[in-house]
Write a structure and sequence with these properties.
Layout: H1 9-12, H2 18-26, E1 33-34, H3 46-57, H4 71-85, E2 94-97, H5 99-111, E3 117-122, H6 126-134, E4 138-143, H7 154-160, E5 165-171, H8 183-196, E6 199-203, E7 229-234, E8 247-250, H9 256-267, H10 272-283, H11 287-308, E9 314-315, E10 324-325, E11 328-329, H12 337-348, E12 350-351, E13 353-354, E14 366-369, H13 374-388
Parallel strand pairs: 1-12, 3-4, 3-5, 5-6, 6-7
Antiparallel strand pairs: 2-8, 7-8, 9-11, 10-14, 13-14
Bound molecules: pyridoxal-5'-phosphate.
Pyridoxal-5'-phosphate (PLP) binds at residues 38, 99-101, 125, 171, 175, 203, 205, 234, 236, 242, 247.
């Protein structure tokens, strides 16, 4: 028998991305209503594009930058962290990355040895699971408490710690549930991390999108956590800069050179043209961020109203942040979320993401994005009302 291609066990273990699979299948469906992607549909604001255009015209973008990023950009990031995250940082503690994703991947590679366990409050962003697997680590899913709005199960986290536990990795505001974990809960996580000397790796991609008085809290603002936290951020969501691939991380200056050892083989440096765009984003007017937030809040309310009308099909926890929600399917057919999502796509014309893509506790759910125009949400629910009738 002919041997197959030589693929590492690490990569072989990674399942296909359900999001990309739904996107592929959606192409074959006429007039599909698309709620599968967590990607802002707005374009990048003009003043940010102009920052990049000027840098190109001035001949500034043809070479590499320092691995950690342009010093002037890191200076602006330091100001932003102080102003919005209450984190006292220095430029030696900042690394500019290829989106939050490369920062997270480099952070996980810098922390996790083969066989190390990483606690993931679950359901969780599927890419985090893959990042742990690529580092040959072991994802340990700790279910959140759905009845309490997907709150963290602090006792569950404590009970999951073993001699091999190296880190806790999570995103708040959360993908896929839209939960913003409270400052009190995150302070508990910090206490556990300090007690067991664990690293906390945070993904704060949706930091600016919180609603109904919920506030984003950065664990790095707790001074005692200085040597136990790596915080990853991005321009992707805040400024609708998905395709620019630009983000950054903050960690203690002792840790940054270690993460840099993983960052260089992954990226050398973040795209320089995008670093200039990011500089323009931070230095320019911030009203675009408020505008995006208002849009998501209004879209969330539309989606909740429409879900209320399908209360025999779904129950849901109202998201307090991000632009995602994670309804539970009440129908028997919903027990297998992949089959249910494919059926809803093929027969109902609505593209969502199966909950199982976000870890075992995601089964029986589906993820819907409200980062789309409200007409798209109404179209999707009009179709679902017809389909479920
Ligand atoms: C929680 C979370 N982190 C990170 C990302 C991607 O971030 P970036 O584009 O900065 O790599 C996403 C995108 O959907 C996300 O939902």
């Amino acid at each position: 028998m002919a041997e197959g291609p030589k693929i590492s066990e690490r990569v072989g273990k990674i399942s296909k991305s359900a999001i990309h699979e739904m996107t592929r299948l959606s192409k074959d469906v006429d007039d599909v209503a698309f709620l599968s992607w967590a990607k802002p549909t707005s374009d990048t604001p003009d003043h940010i594009k102009n920052g990049a255009i000027s840098a190109i015209s001035e001949g500034l973008v043809g070479g590499y930058s320092e691995n950690a990023g342009l010093p002037e950009l890191r200076e602006e990031i330091v100001k932003k962290l102080k102003r919005d995250n209450h984190v006292d940082a220095e430029i030696s503690q900042i690394m500019v990355t290829v989106g939050a994703i490369e920062g997270l991947a480099a952070a996980v590679l810098a922390v996790v040895d083969p066989g190390d366990e990483v606690i993931l409050p679950s359901p969780t962003y599927s890419t985090h699971v893959r990042q742990v697997v690529i580092a040959s680590g072991k994802p340990v899913f700790v279910p959140t408490n759905e009845e309490k709005g997907f709150a963290l199960d602090i006792e569950g986290i404590k009970n999951a710690i073993t001699a091999r536990t190296k880190a806790i990795l999570f995103c708040s505001p959360n993908n896929p549930t839209g939960t913003v974990w409270s400052e009190d809960q995150l302070r508990e996580v910090a206490r556990i991390a300090l007690e067991h000397n664990l690293m906390v790796i945070t993904d704060e991609a949706y930091e600016y999108f919180t609603y109904d008085g919920h506030e984003h809290f950065s664990i790095a603002s707790i001074p005692e956590m200085r040597r136990n936290v790596i915080s990853c951020y991005t321009f992707t969501k805040t400024y609708a800069m998905t395709g620019w691939r630009i983000g950054y991380l903050h960690a203690d200056e002792e840790i940054i050179p270690q993460i840099n050892k993983a960052h260089i083989p992954l990226a050398i440096c973040a795209p320089v043209v995008s670093q200039y765009a990011a500089l323009a984003a931070l230095k320019g007017p911030q009203d675009c961020v408020a505008r995006f937030r208002e849009h998501y809040l209004s879209a969330r309310n539309v989606m909740c109203e429409r879900l209320d009308r399908l209360s025999s099909i779904f129950t849901y926890e109202k998201p307090s942040g991000s632009y995602l929600m994670f309804p539970k399917i009440l129908l028997e057919e919903g027990k297998d979320s992949i089959t249910f999502c494919k059926m809803l796509l093929k027969e109902g014309g609505v593209s969502t993401t199966p909950g199982i893509a976000f870890g075992p506790t995601g089964q029986g759910h589906l993820r819907m994005s409200f980062c789309v125009p409200e007409e798209e949400i109404n179209k999707a629910f009009d179709k679902m009302e017809v389909y479920f009738r």
